[in-house]
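Reviewer comment 2.1 asked that we show a complete input and output for one of the modelled complexes. We chose the phosphoenolpyruvate case, as it is the one discussed in the main text.
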Amino acid sequence: MDLLNKINFNWIKKFSYPLIIAGPCSAENKQQIFDITKELNKSYVEVLRAGIWKPRTKPGMFEGVGEKGLKWLIEAKKKFNILLAIEIATKEHVKIALKYDIDILWIGARSTCNPFTIQEISNELKDTNKIILIKNPLNLDINLWLGGVERLINNNILNIGLIHRGFTLYKNSKYRNQPCWLDVLNIKKKYPKLPILCDPSHIAGDRKYIYEISKNAINFGYDGLMIETHVNPDKALSDANQQIKPNFLTDILNKILLKKIITKSYLNDLNLYRTNILEIDENIISLLHNRLISSKNIGKIKKKYNIEIIQKEKMLELKKYYKNICEKFNIDQNFIQTIFELIHKKSIEVQI
Ligand code: PEP
Ligand code: MN
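Response of the prediction step:
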């Protein structure tokens, strides 16, 4: 039997649709937690998120306030009657989170990349009834993600959901992380009941994209959203650019949910494929940009060492190279040839 079918899909039904988790990237101080929890629109937001231990790119950056932040969260939970969600990344984090009886625990993208980490977390959570959300790994490896889910199921952890937070693909992309909607929606196709939330904040990296990503997620049938929200986003100690004010969150949700932008399903499918094409086109342009930089550098070296710009035998080699790739993908060789003629023309232009 497929292990994933063992998941208890029903936990999500205890929440309104869509499940909205909101709150700051990081808990910073007690006042900030109280201010944001008070301001969140409770008719939408059922769960407060806040990072307590922050996985940062470089040491010396703000790495979270640690256990004392949980005391603030617990106070805020009692005062404002809201559930809590935090990230756990080690077995010590799990022990502390369980001690404070935090409602929802999520496993971050950097942890999902590492099977040892997931296994350690899973062992510590064994038999828990807590809701465990698992973010996608940084790299586009759906099996690694689902493998993480299986590691939880093997320890009888069954209240599970996925969080789609985007993938690191190419260097220059519009969003901080690329959504790769189609890849994620294939999981939903195979396991229609498996709860999947979208985290538009970490996909976007910039607050101006939160609305469009959230709208897509809801239209594509996601079960909820996790959105970073802060009373003073510009002053946030982590992820300042992508956090939004609570009233902006309400506006976004009003627009998406009340005005029923949600449309007929065939239009959503059309939109899904159109969105996928836009994602692909952006990658093509980004790769062409990188290609042209290499062409320019080749031009400099050729000039310095007096090498001919056009080398016939190199061109023939390339043609063979493209032909092989076309065969692999079963794609029309003439079509690809035509595209590369244009690319080579430009490449020669930037070498001169
Ligand atoms: C976060 O939610 O603040 C976070 C660190 O997310 P991710 O694991 O997606 O980078
Ligand atoms: Mn963050």
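Strands lie at 19-23, 45-49, 83-88, 104-107, 131-135, 160-164, 196-198, 224-228. We note this here for comparison with the apo prediction described in Section 3.2.
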